[in-house]
Amino acid sequence: MKISYNWLREYLKIDNDVNELASVLTSIGLEVEGMEEWESVRGGMKGVVIGKVITCERHPDADRLSVTTVDVGGEQPLNIVCGAPNVAAGQTVAVATAGTKIVKDNELFEIKKSKIRGQLSEGMICAEDELGIGSDHEGIVVLDPSAAVGSPAADYFNITTDVVFEIGLTPNRIDCSSHYGVARDLAAYFNLQKPVRAKLPPVDSYVKDRTEGAVAVSVEAAKECIRYSGLTIRGITVSQSPEWLRKRLMAIGLNPINNVVDITNFVLHETGQPLHA
Known about the structure:
By secondary structure, the protein is an alpha+beta fold. It folds into 2 domains: 2-40 and 161-271, Phenylalanyl-tRNA Synthetase, Chain B, domain 1 (2-Layer Sandwich), CATH 3.30.56.10; 48-156, CATH 2.40.50.140. It is 20% helix and 23% strand. The protein has 7 helices and 13 strands. The protein has helices spanning 5-8, 18-27, 128-131, 153-156, 179-190, 243-251, 259-271, and strands at residues 2-4, 32-39, 48-58, 66-71, 78-82, 92-97, 101-104, 107-110, 114-116, 119-121, 123-125, 142-143, 161-167. Strands 3, 4, 5, 6, 11 and 12 form a 6-stranded antiparallel sheet that branches. β3 and β4 form a beta hairpin. The chain is elongated. The two termini are 23 Å apart. The model has no long low-confidence stretch (mean pLDDT 93).
């Protein structure tokens, strides 16, 4: 069973080191068999910063290359040779600095200072595929001018990093078959040190607008199923799920499908309650 550290903290306010938390989980009967770091974009855009193109001139020895100077918040601007047809002075861009490792087409390569056709290049102005946010390579990504020069591109693109615990759940611990279940068990442990309680998000804003037109439910095996709950929701448009929901599912190895399918999977891994829509 996969448990996301970020997701777990939605129900239990903890800031323990992940290795310490792994030891605690194992000690309370939820054996951690492994941990892995997860990033919403491979590489996490480490080493990629926001830059501003100060100058842009044609390369003297190559028609399809441009020689640029880019301010990345350092003492001196970087000299960067760029092959994108849309690069221009004044643009705000994402710059992979020297030493940055870029994942492209499942291959890892490191950005190094080098000379391209005799001109010094100290970084790379990135396209979508080089950042890992898309597949387009027709030109560089031009950012909003309000982006702060020198700031991490990971902040601008809202890149999420997480740690995922692989727990060897035994049949007698079905109470911990969800993130909230694990949060409750951890709360019982940490409550021995100071008062702490696992909490689900509030639902105070939920209001039932009407009762007519609901789907009828008939329980034919009352002894085996003592309670069955259903909810009718109208006005739903099947579409892509919001980013936060897609990230939650991807962190634990699930592929987002659409908002209807994804929310049922979310509730399953949040509370342990299977749903069908």
